[in-house]
Amino acid sequence: MNILEIIAKKRDNKELSKDEIEYFIKEYTNGNITDYQASALIMAIYIQGMNKEEITNLTLAMAHSGEMLDLSVFGKNVVDKHSTGGVGDKITLILMPIIASLGIPVAKMSGRGLGFTGGTIDKLESIPGYHTNVAIEDFIKNVQQVGISLIGQTLNLAPADKKIYALRDTISCTDSIPLIASSIMSKKIAAGANKIVLDVTCGNGAFMQTKEEARELAKVMNDIGKLAGKETVCIITNMNEPLGSAVGNNLEVIEAIKALKGQMQEDVEKVVLELGAYMIKIAGMGEDIEENKKKIQENIKNGKAYKKLVQLVENQGGDISYIENIEKFKKAKFKIPVICEKDGYIEEIPARKVGEISAKLGAGRMRKEDNIDETVGITILKKVSDEVNEGEILAYIHANDEKLGNDARDELNKIYKIGKEKVQKPNVILDIIK
Ligand code: URA
User: Fold this and answer.
1) Strand segments (E) across 127-229
2) 3-class state of residue 172 by DSSP
3) For 236, which of 48, 225, 356, 430 could close a Cys bridge (C-beta 3.0–4.6 Å)?
4) 169-178, 241-250, 291-300, 335-344: which range is least confident on average?
5) How far is the CA of 81 from the centre of ligand 1 (A)?
6) Domain limits, CATH 3.40.1030.10, in the chain
7) CATH architecture of 3-49
8) Is 161 a catalytic residue?
9) Is domain 72-158+168-324 given the CATH code 3.30.420.40 in the classification?
């Protein structure tokens, strides 16, 4: 077998065999296939697609490219959660401490930003001292000690995904059903949970632009879950405008801390409640979705969820004085208001453009070796359906370079669409696929 034949086969829209897929994954992980050859094959998969069998074989090969975690010490109902990515998506930071505070073990590996979307690991690293790079034994020990650990994808877990994920980001191959489904499900299978709730984002700020595409991705991931013996529920959520208020790394951490103290943005709350209620259900801790939502609200109100976040940060080496006093977080040099130029109602704030503007300020990566700036980004004050008046502040740009900041302000002002008629608040939960 050789990689040139495999690339040519996919380029010519032919089906790859299990052996060919396993060969590619093994040899790319070992470094015997170069990044440029892998790029060619990934691009061919992006363009030509894959059938279900190929996607399943790709997922399983990626899952088995490294260590397979055994979380059975935590029982049969270990639940994991993953999002297909979005703009302002800080749900993991809020939801996982809530779930842990309800006595459900949380052992989650998260990713870095991809394309115009942010990543939980980049966000967590903006808490001084927080270690995301933790050995598997310590990861398990942390869950045993405080019921929760959130870490980066360790070198040993689905290493093929780690390489392919970083590569896709730099060759414009992020929004592809076979590549997203195999990326997410390989990690989830290798990470050992046996119940999975997936947030399948949909809209201009997501990789899946339409409900149909999102449903298709959800169905593929559900099928893979079934095959791997893992109960999987997909919640399709709206990502046409940024989620919540903050877009950018430490800005989103600050929003998450406030949310756990009870100040949660309306759209964020809907996603937290829906995903959380299903996580509780499939963990065997409550059949009734509405009751489960009340349990979540209760643990925010009584402070247990916030306390769990503090324990998590402390246990991972993070400085909890930042959680206790958010004013301590490093700020960008310039905070530039985006001023509304006419009276009316907000019709649209295209999330993807907001993500791109934030990435240009330094919150995201253009190349896989780029560093990100944890302080920059955008805070959205006015959301779709809000009434606005000329002269009001729509948002703030947080920048460390004044020119970049002013450019971002002008760009954001241009993409805010303001009309004369009030539009409905968009639905946040679009569908649930079990
Ligand atoms: N999240 C992942 O882990 N992989 C993707 O491809 C997209 C989102």
Assistant:
1) 148-152, 195-202
2) coil
3) 430
4) 169-178
5) 12
6) 72-158+168-324
7) Up-down Bundle (1.20)
8) yes
9) no
